[in-house]
Write a structure and sequence with these properties.
The structure is a homodimer. Helix content of chain A is about 35%, strand content about 25%. By secondary structure, the first copy, chain A, is α/β, with parallel strands linked by helices. Chain A folds into two domains: about 130 residues, ornithine cyclodeaminase, domain 1; about 180 residues, NAD(P)-binding Rossmann-like Domain (Rossmann fold, 3-Layer(aba) Sandwich), CATH 3.40.50. The longest helix of chain A has 17 residues. The interface between A and B is large, with 42 and 42 residues.
């Protein structure tokens, strides 16, 4: 069994290349070629019972692919204050023919971050926007930064508006994005970011809405990435109630873990109102619903097929580079 | 992150020591101190759609323990014919405080085999039998051998009767057990094994019953280990219908994956007729129901807490040996 370090993984693939792999994974899933067993979630609590971290285990098989993947991504929100990485983990690739593990990609959660940002870029790309449009980013963590970079690179955008609960962290994120060549501006309120933006990506671990209906202009395409565990939610359910189109990556998981489910439980939307992300990505032409003015929401909770797609691409890239 | 090889693991712990750790795990689970998320199962199929292997992912957290565990055990039934190990895998220990992986026990499925055999020994031990009783073993694989060794060591038994679909493999298993000091005899039929035995352990991956009601004497304590995936079953449902006591390790999983569920669906038993294995192990005195003549069945599907218990014990043993 091969054990591949983060440095080897990062040298083998460019984040941008991940977008195609992840897209192919979602499309294969929509075509029924992929099985993603229900993800496992472990919640870490302290002695007071406070939820301070999670471990997510996701897995997938893909008809005709030589590997299945089991992905572990795990961390604590308190690690940054300890000077530790926020998250760690690995993707185990298992040969479909023998059932034996062939490789551990010890990615320390990097491939999870990349495949999540790749999905965000694909979700943002469902909305036709001009290249001078601004991307709004809610959140200031690793995923906020990677989403901003990958969405802007994928859509050719150059302008980013940032908001975070902690203004210092928001300013620091804007600084880092500027260093990467983007015109990034920290803003004082969620409302300012929303009104400045054509596309908004939300990347917080919030357990109550951060973006309210009153913050949102008449037209906004929202990619909701943060909520991935029961109890997490970033968007006021009324925003989904107002949206003309709602897209989910994984219907059942979004129902239990994410803003889509919160809005269903709030009675704002019907449980069957969502379109499939994979089916939309499979379309030869962009879905005309997304070209309309008004609010659209893509709710992403993350799927094992993303992990399998990016891990397989990584292993192939490593083999090619030998 | 530490990566521990199979050789290091095997040097660190004796299989017998695992019994106490696994027992403590089941008892902690029965007391509500353990959370085991629903296990994940991946089924490997060939191009004809035939099921030739599985990957099981199990996980657990235990209140007050410094680690959570995620276990991957995976393989194909066709590996032996290819000269490959039947199964592989690893247990990842994750620090509860930081959520970061601390160690990969690359056990190649050995710890899974040991903790499964440890549970079998504990299940066999629920039945008071004399030391000259015979253990019957149905199946001839790795788990058949480990169950025979651990049950006999734990209960002080010296005599084993073996049956397998393949008589050559049954004879070879009996030879190996004899080399280990047990009086082991291969027998021609399941019925002969059952009638020679006080305790029977079944360890096959069968998808239709191997042991029929007609094979079973009036008194027999059966430990059913093989069925751990929907569609697998080893015991004629009428045996469970006839049993005065049925014990399950994990009620929900046994309902979907195992002989208990098959008998419920066959209408032979009520869904709530089972006793909890962990609660029985927690009793100061043996449960008097098991002392009765007649048929009793312990249905084991395997729990993440076993993996966590044995992995934590292993890591502690490695730390002590430094």
């Amino acid at each position: 069994m091969r054990i591949v370090s983060l440095a080897e993984i990062q040298a083998a693939i460019a984040p941008e290349a991940a977008i195609d792999a992840v897209k192919a994974g979602f499309i294969a899933h929509a075509k029924g070629l992929v099985e993603c067993p229900e993800p496992t979630q472990i919640v870490f609590r302290d002695e007071q019972g406070d939820h301070h971290g999670e471990c997510h285990v996701k897995s997938a098989t893909w008809e005709g692919l030589p590997y299945a993947a089991v992905k572990i991504a795990s961390g604590s929100y308190r690690n940054a204050a300890r000077g530790l990485p926020g998250a760690g983990g690995m993707i185990v690739l298992i040969a479909s023919e023998t059932g034996l593990p062939e490789a551990i990609l010890h990615d320390e959660c990097w491939l999870t971050n990349v495949r999540t940002a790749a999905a965000g870029a694909l979700a943002a790309g469902l909305k036709p926007v001009s290249k001078d449009a601004t991307l709004g980013v809610i959140g200031t963590g690793t995923q906020a930064e990677m989403q901003a970079e990958m969405i802007c690179a994928h859509l050719g955008l150059g302008s980013v508006a940032v908001w975070g609960r902690n203004p210092t962290r928001a300013a620091a994120l804007a600084d880092r994005l500027r260093a990467g060549g983007l015109a990034a501006t920290p803003m004082a309120t969620v409302r300012e970011v929303c009104h400045a933006s054509a596309i908004l990506v939300t990347t917080t671990p919030a357990t109550s809405p951060v973006v309210h209906l009153e913050d949102v202009p008449e037209t906004l395409h929202i990619v909701a990435v943060g909520a991935d565990t029961p109890g997490k939610t970033e968007l006021d359910s009324r925003i989904l109630g107002r949206a003309h189109t709602i897209v989910t990556d994984a219907h059942q998981e979004c129902l239990s873990n994410s803003d889509f489910g919160a809005a269903v439980r709030a009675g704002e939307i019907a449980e069957d109102c969502d379109a499939s992300f994979g089916e939309m990505l499979a379309l030869a032409e962009p879905d005309p619903r997304l070209a309309r003015d008004g609010i659209s929401v893509v709710d992403l909770t993350g799927m094992g097929v993303q992990d399998l797609a990016i891990a397989e691409m990584t292993l192939n890239a490593l083999a090619d580079s030998r």
